[in-house]
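Hi F.,

I've been meaning to write this up properly since the lab meeting, where we talked about keeping a consistent format for the predictions we share between groups. The idea is simple: the sequence comes first, exactly as it goes in, then the structure tokens exactly as they come out, then a line or two of notes. No screenshots and no reformatting. I'm using this chain as the first example so we have something concrete to point to.
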Amino acid sequence: MAPLFAKGDRVRAYATRFDKKEEDLEPGEQLFSDKWAADGNGIWCYGSVARVYVKKGRKAQEYMIKYDNGESMRGIEEHLEEAGDDIEI
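Output, unedited:
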């Protein structure tokens, strides 16, 4: 089956996907999603697909996402959605 997204597609992921476990937080440290929302960014992290990895066996389809804040991280298809026209680039 072909990947859902292609290189250059705009995608979004919930900011909660980047949260640490509560027990791993340092005293006084906020969850990523709480800080992200407090900074006025909402509940979504937006980015563009930079690379589509070859799917192997039953593993989830993976992508390299370059997020708008400058970070690049891997993401799997089930955690991503098409960004659509609801954002400014």
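Notes:
The longest strand covers residues 44-52.
The chain has one domain: 1-16+31-89.

If this format works for you, I'll send the rest the same way.

G.
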